[in-house]
Amino acid sequence: MSDLPIEQAIAREERKEQRIYLMLFMPAVMLVVLFLGVPLLILAIQSFQEGGHLTLEHYARIFDEPIYWRTYYDTLEISVAVTVLCILLGFPLAYAAAIAPRGWSTLILALVMLPFWTSVLVRTYAWLVVLQRRGIVNSLLMSAGIIDAPLSLSHNTFAVLIGMVHVMLPFMVFPLYAAISKIPQDLLQAGSSLGGSPWYVFRRVLLPLSLPGMFAGSVLVFILSLGFYLTPELLGGGKTILVSSLVQRNIELYLQFGAASAVAMILLLIVFVIFWLVDRILPVEKIVGMR
Amino acid sequence: MQTWSRPLLWTTTVAILAFLILPIVIVVIMSFSGSRFLTFPPPSFSLRWYEAYFGDRDWMDATRTSVLLATLATVFAVPIGTAAAYAANVSSSKLVRLLQLWLLTPVMVPVIILAAGIYMVYAQVGLVATKTGLVCAYTMMNLPYVFIAVLAGLRSFDMSQEDVARSLGVNRFEAFMKVTLPQIKPSIITGALFAFIGALDETVVSIFIAGGENQTLPRRMFMSLRNEIDPTIAAISSVLIAISFSLVILFGMRGRKSQMQ
Description:
The complex is a heterodimer. Chain A contains 13 helices and 2 strands, in the order αββαααααααααααα. Chain A is mainly α. A two-stranded antiparallel sheet of chain A has the order 1-2. In chain A, a hairpin with a 2-residue loop joins strand 1 (49-50) and strand 2 (53-54). In chain A, helix 3 (66-99) packs antiparallel against helix 4 (102-117) and helix 11 (243-252) packs antiparallel against helix 12 (257-279). By secondary structure, chain B is mostly helical. The two termini of chain B are 31 Å apart. Chains A and B meet through helix 1, helix 3, helix 4, helix 5 and helix 8 of A and helix 1, helix 3, helix 4, helix 5 and helix 6 of B.
């Protein structure tokens, strides 16, 4: 009986604490509501509007006009290609970093960190310089006598692919390295001492154990590729148009806010569906917090 | 151990690392070129592109604007993000748990969509190309990095230390400032650094909502790259690369220090 007032006081105190926490938490929430929530809401509304009344014409156009389909298809295709290339290039790099002696391992990771920390714009510019007509690749090929006239290497899909892989590779290497470096080396030794061929050990031991890292890296690379704007825009030379460029053009060139919003909403939907599916396998916080 | 043959693995590794590093090295070499054209190797060396950058009022204005905006965004994002991370760490409220993911959405939404949405809102309320508008957008975009970094720091900190301080008579705020803050300082600095770099480097949103008097460095670089491959950009890029390089070294040293402890 006599405990009751104390318990009530504790409960009151507890509620007060929870209110304080909520107050500390709210400014951040409000900031994201105002500068992300409201803009997304406006996009959603705009996508169903034209000339002040409700319409589905923007979505209808996306389904009707082949150019829109084509752009979504190209974007998916390039994102898949970038992800696959990042796995192929990232795996040996992560594996080498994981098995190398300490100093070498640090060096490899530092060499992956340097481009990671360098501005995407700077790296895209670097590829423009390397791949241009008088660029180093053309000079090398010409002085080696392999070609007579410079190849046009930039302003096409090839350049977009190279530039994107360069930007995305670190996002694959870091989670892969985290996964591979946790695999006990004895396991691989056991595999080969029991007579497994290198390929067999890779396929049955190394690959399955590094799958979580590969999965996290792939999700990150794929999602980032879907919405990537700078590199495709600068290295694609207007020929390889991805969804992001379609959004930008509809706004700045054609002032078609409704069309831009509808294109953006579908992209957003794709991204959120992927995150929602992925979340069942690996918590999104884990993937996003990886940076 | 012998899953891959050693020479093959090391050749592959070196080749991939060259792919990552060489373009950056080439830009740095090009920035010292004496030629108006970006022929490699440069026919002569000079500092003319650095002079073109540091001597140009427009480039310098854009640089100053970017540094100022990034500083302001960091100043806002750090306390707001730290308060949220603190609350998320100790609160048992379901609402807070639920809203946590919301604070991560700015990094999940493709930046082109963010840019388009913010542009449409700003166009209606007159915030396009204003410092206020830019700082607000950058603060929101970089808030998640502060939140994630500080939350990680708090998770490895024993909160009962704060309770001890409070039981010794200091109030809650003082307990945080005197006991918790000094111990999570490294995570806060990491978060602040992420936020600053993120805001300094932000290009896509700037393309839409910066401009006029408030032209930012990345936006100006982008606009100039669209027209021609100006060697001045090589000099600016090299300055930015030098900054990244220092960051990698800084982080490398901090990493080693924390491993030693």
